[in-house]
Design brief:
Layout: H1 10-20, E1 25-32, E2 37-41, E3 44-50, H2 52-57, E4 70-76, E5 79-85, E6 91-95, E7 103-108, E8 112-118, H3 125-138, E9 141-147, H4 155-165, E10 171-173, E11 194-199, H5 205-213, E12 238-241, E13 247-250, H6 263-269, H7 271-277, H8 294-300, H9 306-341
Parallel strand pairs: 3-5, 8-9, 8-11, 9-10, 11-13
Antiparallel strand pairs: 1-2, 1-4, 2-3, 4-5, 6-7, 12-13
C-alpha cells in the first residue's frame, strides 16, 4: 500500500521533509494498543512504540500519537520507534472524565466526522448537539448519519427534528443492514479521504463499516431485545482503507462526552441561538427577564425549543469550567518547569 492510499498529500510531505533529510521514515497510525501502535507505511505494517525522549517531553496524552496521525519513525530491531507526530490538520477530541482535564484524541487528520445516531431507542437530540459541538471544533466537516431507519416508524418526523438543530449540516438516513442509503455516503469516501465514525455503542457503526467494505471486517453482536441496542463490539480505534479508496476510522462507542472545545465550536453548533442573542435590545442582556430580550420572546413564542436552549446553557457552563481547569493545569506545568530550570 502506498502513502497516497493512506491519505498522504503535499501538505504532509512539506512537514515531513526535515525528518526525511535526517533519515526518518513516515507512517500512519492505524491501530492503538495500550503501549504500542500499529503503523502502516510503504513497506507494510510495523509495530511501533514512542521513543523515550518523546514520552518524556510530552506534557499530556494529546502530545503522543493517536489513530490517524502521521508519524516520523526509525526502524530498530524489527520495530518502529516513533520520534515525532506531524502537525495535525484536524482532530476529534474530548476531555477525559475525572478531576484532570486531559485531552483524549479520538481520531486525527480526518476530513469528515460521521456522527452516527440510531433513529429508534438511541435517538437523543441533546447528545447529538454535544457531538456537533465537538465536530465543529475538530476542523473536520460534520455529517449526520441516522442509522437503523428500518426500525423507526416515525423516521420523517425525527429527521425533521434533527434538521432543526443542525442547520446546514448534511443528514443521511440509512439502514446498513439493508444497504439503504449507503450510496449517499460515497462522496465523502473518495481516494485518500478519511472519515471517522463517532457515536454511542450499538448505533451500528461496525455494521456500517462491513456494508461499506463489502466484507465482514468488524464483528457485529446481536441486538438486545430489552432496549434495541447492539451490544458493545468495537473495543479500540482502528483505521481501515476501503476497497473504494476511502478511509474509515472506527471508534468505540462513547459512554460519556466530556467537552473539549472552544467558543467557536459552541457558536457553530448553536448559531441560531447566538443570532437571537444579537437581536436583544441590550448588548449585555443576561436573558433573565430584561426588557427587549430576543431569547425570552423566542421561548415564549415557541420559536426556540426550551430544551435546546437549556442544553446550550449547560454546555456553555461546562466549557467555562473546562477552560478554568485547563488554565490551572497550565499554571501547574509552568510552575514545575520553572523549578526544573532553577
Amino acid at each position: 500500500m502506498n502513502l497516497v492510499e493512506l491519505g498522504w498529500n503535499s501538505s504532509y510531505e512539506q512537514h515531513f521533509t526535515p525528518y526525511r533529510e535526517r533519515g526518518y521514515s513516515v507512517g500512519r497510525v492505524v491501530r492503538e494498543h495500550r503501549h504500542y501502535f500499529q503503523i502502516a507505511a510503504e513497506g507494510g505494517e510495523v509495530l511501533g512504540e514512542v521513543s523515550g525522549k518523546m514520552r518524556f517531553d510530552a506534557l499530556e496524552r494529546a502530545d503522543l500519537p493517536a489513530v490517524g496521525d502521521w508519524v516520523a519513525l526509525k526502524h530498530q530491531d524489527g520495530r518502529g520507534i516513533i520520534h515525532a507526530v506531524l502537525p495535525r490538520k484536524s482532530k476529534f477530541s474530548r476531555n477525559t472524565a475525572g478531576a484532570t482535564s486531559d485531552e483524549q484524541i479520538v481520531a486525527a487528520n480526518i476530513d469528515t466526522a460521521f456522527l452516527v445516531m440510531a433513529l429508534h431507542q438511541d435517538y437523543n437530540l441533546r447528545r447529538l448537539e454535544r457531538y456537533l459541538l465537538l465536530a465543529w471544533d475538530s476542523g473536520a466537516t460534520p455529517v449526520i448519519v441516522l442509522s437503523k431507519i428500518d426500525l423507526c416508524d416515525n423516521a420523517e418526523e425525527r429527521i425533521a427534528e434533527v434538521e432543526g438543530i443542525a442547520p446546514g449540516v448534511p443528514i443521511h438516513a440509512i439502514s446498513a443492514l439493508h444497504t439503504q442509503g449507503l450510496q449517499e455516503l460515497q462522496p465523502y469516501l473518495g481516494q485518500g479521504h478519511t472519515a471517522a465514525l463517532i457515536g454511542s455503542s450499538g448505533v451500528g457503526k461496525s455494521t456500517l463499516i462491513n456494508a461499506l467494505s463489502g466484507s465482514e471486517l468488524q464483528r457485529v453482536n446481536d441486538i438486545r431485545l430489552s432496549d434495541g441496542r447492539g451490544k458493545h463490539t468495537t473495543t479500540h480505534r482502528e483505521l481501515i482503507v476501503l476497497p473504494t479508496g476511502g478511509i474509515i476510522i472506527d471508534t468505540p462507542g462513547m459512554r460519556e462526552i466530556q467537552l473539549n472545545a472552544s467558543d467557536e465550536g459552541l457558536s457553530s453548533a448553536f448559531e441560531d441561538i447566538e443570532q437571537l442573542m444579537e437581536q436583544c435590545r441590550y448588548r449585555d442582556c443576561k436573558h433573565n427577564g430584561e426588557p427587549g430580550c430576543a431569547i425570552k420572546s423566542a421561548l415564549a413564542a415557541s420559536e426556540l425549543d426550551r430544551s435546546r436552549y437549556d442544553n446550550y446553557l449547560k454546555m456553555e457552563r461546562e466549557l467555562a469550567y473546562a477552560e478554568r481547569r485547563e488554565n490551572e493545569k497550565l499554571r501547574r506545568v509552568d510552575k514545575a518547569s520553572k523549578k526544573l530550570r532553577k
